[in-house]
């Protein structure tokens, strides 16, 4: 099996001892997470190809440069990166496949090179996939060719100042003029200005714009249009284009998010993407075979968020916090003895080990989702849309659960590192800024939960009939009525059954409430709104049941050595027990768990923490996140935390001179003023 060659001068003694305690082969887990030894080899070669380039390394830590400099540096690096992608493709003779772009834009490698976001990301992550899903063959041949070759840089302009997740509420208009065979785009209100698209501020010269289509004063809903924003030579805004950057944010300040308004901007008829819906020359409108075909790009991005943002940033956070916890010694556990490693404290284990398990649960469920997405996309090309609603539902709730869990877990890992976790050099602030953004972009989490809930309500009604349900909701047939038939047992099959019972019970409760309210005369819309808290809980419970199931399947079906299988089983059990106890009320209400069983669950959780403690460092080492990608003085492989903290402190511009200019200008006169 292939592994990374790690070059370090001296490894912290405590961290070295932790690695020697490990009971399994860390490389085996690395290969499992990568998809095999060859995938590990490819990943490491790709990382070294980019990370060893001095032009892609920061000369000044990003936290010490201005807002404009952050953007300019992100553009400089982006240009170098995409030239190197071409070099890599030529070197490996791999053609123009999308895998390398996904590895860089949607994975850990990109986050190491462009720590505060990338202005080119939507060009590949949304513009090109949207063209592939919604453009005709002729449109794809022209636009994708130009986009792949980076002759143009594009973005995806959907969200507006006044509307985001509610796409039907978008206000930008595209009115067809049959006399000139053109669409005329306008922003009729301030709230109709596009707001948030990455790269829109100063980077992109084209955009895929989502706008309300009007023909002869009739509105036909949201459709995609390719619009030129800036001159290809001068980069000046085109006539009628009102464009700029939206300003500084909590994170992702290299992404160049922008705003965009239109004033009678005309584009040719063939710049509406017409693979699905069409507008003929005379203005005749041909409806798409299914409105759902337009959702493909958003589903792709939600899949990518789970895969490349939530899981990967959480993996970095738990790696940093776990290694630091093995190095840091604090207080006296027993009087007169050496201060213990903080990882020996049970409270610290409770902060870290469930989050390590959560990171793996995200990875396994995102891999399942990625495979389903590719299969369903292939089925859509053949005209089969049967599994699209199921994919949409599971992508929505997974995006919501994983981003929320990752944001909360990263903050918990930061606190677990004490004051040092507050330093920018720990990489917790940047990681939190990147992940918490994902809780609201590409669908605000509560809205996504409710989209999943709508699907679950339909499935609940179908479960009463004779027909089979889709794979992810099969349990609805029996779970809701089975909770009283089983006695509790501290074992994975019982845990999985309990999660499915809770999900089914919450869905049933929500559906019963909606029916009851409607029967009293309330409108279905108001009944839905009055039940929305329970519906959100239903969607979250469904997602957690799905994650427990996929975790169990990975452990059960994977070709694992016995030592690794034992550790992954413990992590799977810890994940399931931890979240059960977090949501204990629902399990007491809807599953076969009884209050007499709760004490044994707490004992089980304690025993799992103790059992996993010797392998904590080994597990995060298996994530194989090199120091350049980890980007943290607290989590480096060598564990030399305090030396690295001093080195990072001395990179501050305020340490370049022994006396700052402000002393002579302000401080000295103040001190001499005899106040």
What is the topology?
Elements: H1 13-21, H2 26-34, H3 37-51, H4 67-92, H5 99-105, H6 108-113, H7 121-134, H8 137-148, E1 154-157, E2 173-177, E3 182-186, E4 194-195, E5 206-215, E6 218-228, E7 241-245, E8 258-262, E9 265-268, E10 278-279, E11 285-286, H9 296-327, H10 346-381, H11 388-416, H12 428-437, H13 445-463, H14 492-519, H15 524-530, H16 532-557, H17 562-582, H18 584-590, H19 595-612, H20 616-622, H21 627-630, H22 641-649, H23 661-671
Parallel strand pairs: 1-5, 2-5
Antiparallel strand pairs: 2-3, 3-9, 4-8, 5-6, 7-8, 10-11
Q: What's the short version?
A:
The protein is an alpha+beta fold and 675 residues long. The protein has 23 helices and eleven strands. The chain has a domain at 152-288: Butyryl-CoA Dehydrogenase, subunit A, domain 2 (Beta Barrel).
CATH level 3 topology of the domain at 152-288: Butyryl-CoA Dehydrogenase, subunit A, domain 2
Roughly what is the average pLDDT, rounded to an integer?
92
SS-based class: alpha+beta
The fraction of residues in strands falls at 5-15%
The helix fraction, in percent, is 40-55%
- Helix count equals 23
| Low-confidence residue ranges | none
Distance between the termini: 72 Å
The CATH homology group name of the domain at 152-288: Butyryl-CoA Dehydrogenase, subunit A, domain 2
CATH architecture of the domain at 152-288: Beta Barrel
Question: How many individual β-strands?
Answer: 11
Major β-sheet, in short?
6 strands, mixed
Overall geometry: globular
- What's the gyration radius in Å? 27 Å
Q: What is the class of the domain at 152-288 in the CATH system?
A: Mainly Beta
């Amino acid at each position: 099996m292939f592994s990374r060659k790690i070059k370090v001068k001296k490894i912290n003694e405590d961290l070295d001892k932790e690695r020697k305690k490990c009971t399994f082969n860390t490389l085996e887990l690395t290969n499992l997470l990568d998809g095999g030894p060859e995938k590990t080899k490819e990943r490491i070669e790709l990382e070294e190809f980019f990370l060893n380039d001095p032009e892609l390394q920061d000369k000044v830590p990003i936290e010490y440069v201005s807002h404009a400099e952050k953007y300019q540096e992100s553009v400089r690096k982006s240009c170098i990166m995409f030239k190197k992608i071409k070099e890599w493709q030529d070197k490996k003779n791999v053609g123009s496949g999308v895998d390398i772009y996904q590895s860089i834009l949607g994975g850990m490698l990109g986050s190491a090179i462009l720590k505060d976001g990338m202005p080119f990301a939507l060009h590949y992550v949304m513009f090109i996939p949207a063209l592939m899903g919604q453009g005709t063959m002729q449109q794809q041949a022209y636009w994708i060719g130009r986009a792949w070759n980076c002759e143009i840089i594009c973005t995806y302009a959907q969200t507006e100042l006044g509307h985001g997740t509610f796409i039907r509420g978008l206000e930008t208009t595209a009115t067809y003029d049959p006399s000139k065979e053109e669409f005329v785009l306008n922003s009729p209100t301030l709230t109709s200005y596009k707001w948030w698209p990455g790269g829109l501020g100063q980077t992109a010269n084209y955009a895929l714009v989502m706008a309300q289509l009007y023909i002869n004063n009739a509105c036909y809903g949201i459709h995609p249009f390719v619009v030129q924003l800036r001159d290809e030579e001068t980069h000046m805004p085109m006539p009628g284009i009102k464009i700029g950057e939206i300003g500084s944010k909590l994170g992702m300040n290299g992404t160049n998010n922008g705003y965009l308004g239109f004033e009678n901007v005309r584009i040719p008829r063939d710049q509406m993407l017409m693979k699905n819906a069409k507008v003929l020359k005379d203005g005749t409108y041909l409806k798409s075979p299914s409105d759902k075909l337009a959702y493909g790009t958003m589903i792709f991005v939600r899949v990518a968020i789970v895969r490349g943002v939530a899981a990967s940033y959480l993996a970095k956070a738990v790696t940093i916090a776990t290694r630091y916890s093995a190095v840091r010694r604090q207080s006296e556990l027993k009087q007169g003895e050496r201060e213990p490693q903080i990882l020996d404290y049970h409270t610290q284990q409770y902060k870290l080990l469930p989050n390590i398990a959560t990171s793996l649960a995200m990875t396994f469920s995102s891999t399942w989702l990625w495979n389903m997405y590719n299969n369903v996309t292939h089925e859509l090309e053949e005209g089969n849309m049967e599994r699209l609603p199921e994919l949409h539902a599971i992508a929505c709730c997974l995006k919501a659960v994983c981003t929320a869990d990752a944001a909360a877990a990263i903050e918990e890992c930061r606190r677990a590192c004490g004051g040092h976790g507050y330093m920018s050099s720990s990489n917790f602030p940047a990681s939190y800024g990147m992940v918490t953004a994902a809780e609201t972009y590409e669908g605000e989490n509560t809205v996504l939960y409710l989209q999943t809930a709508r699907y679950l309500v339909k499935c609940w009604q179908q479960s009463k009939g004779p027909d089979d349900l889709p794979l992810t909701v099969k349990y609805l047939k029996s779970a809701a009525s089975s909770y009283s038939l089983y006695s509790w047992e501290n074992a994975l099959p019982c845990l999985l059954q309990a999660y499915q019972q809770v999900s089914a019970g919450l869905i049933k409760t929500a559906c019963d409430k909606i029916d009851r309210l409607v029967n009293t005369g309330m409108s279905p819309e108001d009944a839905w709104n009055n039940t929305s808290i329970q519906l959100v809980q239903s969607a979250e419970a469904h997602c957690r049941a799905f994650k427990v199931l996929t975790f169990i399947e990975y452990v059960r079906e994977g070709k694992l050595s016995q030592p690794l299988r034992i550790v992954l089983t413990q992590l799977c059990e810890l994940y399931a027990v931890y979240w059960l106890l977090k949501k204990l009320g629902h399990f007491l209400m809807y599953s076969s768990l009884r209050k007499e069983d709760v004490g044994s669950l707490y004992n089980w959780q304690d025993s799992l923490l103790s059992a996993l403690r010797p392998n904590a460092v080994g597990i995060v080492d298996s994530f194989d996140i090199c120091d350049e990608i980890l980007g943290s003085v607290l989590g480096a492989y060598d564990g030399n935390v305090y030396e690295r903290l001093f080195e990072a402190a001395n990179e501050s511009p305020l340490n370049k001179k022994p006396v700052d200019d402000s002393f002579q200008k302000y401080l000295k006169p103040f001190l001499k003023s005899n106040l």
